[in-house]
Design a protein that fits this description.
It is a single chain. With 249 residues, this protein is an alpha+beta fold. It folds into 2 domains: 64 residues, Orthogonal Bundle (Arc Repressor Mutant, subunit A); 159 residues, 3-Layer(aba) Sandwich (Chorismate lyase), CATH 3.40.1410. Helix content is 28%, strand content 33%. The strands form 3 sheets. A 6-stranded antiparallel β-sheet has the order 4-5-6-9-8-7. Strands 1-2 form a two-stranded antiparallel ribbon. A hairpin with a 3-residue loop joins strand 1 and strand 2. Helix 2 crosses helix 3. It is elongated and about 70 Å long. The N and C termini lie far apart (52 Å). The relative contact order is 0.12.
Length: 249
């Protein structure tokens, strides 16, 4: 893979360096956790100024491809998990599609009085019971998200006794309750990590988190579940496919 830059291209040199480094990361010439060459080594390799190298590295750090350790250097980050919002996929399915190993290291099943905010979303009376599933999810041995699912006992009778079959709740619903999921509505907002969340996700208190609330419906447009997923913003992103333009009125 060539390291010489084409200075005749109408593209800034720092961006060409960034492209070259990113290609090495994607081709796994630089693997996850690898220490990349120092700024002086990269400066010599690409025959550009230290400022050019520094800007390329800074942008790769900001985009999550690299991370720095004070006094130790710059390392290759794990790729972010990217969830496509135009598809109904479970977290475990998304991990598997990205070649990552999903795992649940903490799981709790409870039955409780439905919270008022959840009752409205599940379309069940306030005061009724709801099944609650709390899970700490890992991807390739790294804590990635805290997930809380709410399910109506009327839709999934005996769920507390049967539990999940594997890592995917959606697979359990489809195979063991014959529920066909047809659509979902999801809201995503940014929040700072509380102390309890930070401890579970192995991040600093106040670190950025993505709070996603999803309501999933079956073919009869009946709300099947509400799931609140609290994800590390440095490990998770959302991808939306857009098409077309609104016609002028």
């Amino acid at each position: 893979m060539k390291d010489l830059l084409d200075k005749s291209r109408p593209i800034p040199l720092y961006y060409q360096v960034k492209e070259s480094l990113l290609e090495k990361i994607k081709s796994r010439q630089f693997k996850v956790g690898d220490l990349i060459p120092s700024e002086s080594e990269l400066q010599e390799k690409y025959k550009v100024s230290r400022i050019t190298i520094r800007r390329a590295i800074q942008e790769l750090v900001q985009e999550g491809h690299l991370y720095t350790k004070q006094g130790k250097g710059t390392f290759v980050s794990r790729p972010k998990v990217s969830q496509e919002l135009n598809l109904i996929t479970s977290w475990a399915e998304t991990m598997a599609e990205m070649g990552m190993r999903p795992e649940t290291k903490k799981i709790e099943y409870t039955e409780e009085t439905v919270p008022v905010s959840i009752a409205g979303l599940l379309n069940i009376p306030i005061g009724d019971k709801v099944y609650k599933v709390e899970r700490l999810r890992y991807a390739d041995d790294e804590p990635t998200c805290i997930m809380t699912n709410y399910l109506s006992p009327a839709i999934v009778p005996g769920f507390l006794e049967k539990g999940l079959k594997g890592e995917s709740l959606y697979e359990t619903l489809e195979k063991h309750y014959n529920i066909v999921l047809s659509r979902a509505e999801e809201t995503v907002e940014a929040k700072a990590a509380k102390a309890s969340e930070a401890a579970l996700l192995n991040i600093k208190r106040g670190a950025p988190l993505l709070y996603a609330t999803r309501v999933t419906y079956d073919l009869t447009d009946r709300p099947v579940e509400v799931v609140i997923t609290i994800s590390r913003a440095d490990r998770y992103s959302y991808k939306i496919k857009l098409s077309g333009r609104r016609k002028n009125i």
